[in-house]
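Appendix B, Record 12. Input sequence as logged:
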Amino acid sequence: MNSQLSSTENGRTDHIFSGNIFIFQAFDFGDDINLEKIQESGVLITRALTLSKYFKNYHIPLVVELPNNAPNCFSAKIQNFSAVSLTYKIPFNDTLDNVRKQLDSLNNKYQEQSIVDAGEIYKKIKDYITKPNFFHIRSTYVVIQVDPQPNVIDTVMLKEAYGSLIASALRFETQSLSEYQKNEILESAVGYYRGDFIVIDTESAFVYDAEYGEILDFFEFANIQALELRYYDRVLDQQLNIIYEGKTNSVPLTAYLPFIGTMSKGRVDELGKLKVDISVITERLESSIKLAGESYFFDIYSILEEKLGLKTWRDAIDKKLAIISSISSVLQKRIDSVREDMLTTLIIILIFIELLIGLFLRK
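Logged structural output:
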């Protein structure tokens, strides 16, 4: 972005700001992935990871270099639940109005670039993925980070003079929003120090903070959470469609056999495993952040959860898991009942045979 002066909507000369645009992209690659084998194979160059103190060690990703050395790629991480997170960093020194005008096209450009970059990673690691697929779902989030200039513009002036512009930029609009929409977006603004100003919206955020490094981790993680929750919601939808179509009723005959059936894996086992896998991963995703006593970061993450609808996705997944659990119980009870009937019938047949043999021997 070029440095220049322009006129704002109220006719005054706009101010030049410096900062970065961070574009977070996340893709799903399959069911499961072996990070240790990827690291041992050397198919990708790996980097050391400095894990934030606010994150638990449930999901330590593998940090890698892109095979194609794509420009502006700030970070590339492979998650151990078969997702890849790419972060692009685009510096600017320009007016906020020009940033707003170019934001949508810039986002589209790096969305396309991310598909190419993620595809390069996928080609290298697909042999280490269970049921590899590129890709079912992707998730995107954008952060406009601006370097504070407390001696020139404080947060009160920033909100008054640039609030309308910031609000429309966060919605990828080039024109001003209504006063109601602007106020709704800006009312969630938070800040730790007096000169900090952070606004979080559904698809993007505005960060006016000099120490923004740790905050970016929360945006990246929330974007990954959104990806995984949407992915598992889709998986459960597919399973429920199979159930609604009546395909779960066709339990194989071997499942009813008293001894053979317990050793074979049937539909009930598949549903049970799916329920456990999804429950474990979603619980760990939810519990990966430790923010006890950190009210500022807790507020940021809580707003992110609300804006990205993470709780809504979790609730939807929990309801679908409950349905699948109920269906699994019904199927298992039916199998157990048939097995019990078969055993009873077998005992009766054996007693009858024993009686026949006894009668035959008496003769």
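The chain has nine helices and ten strands.
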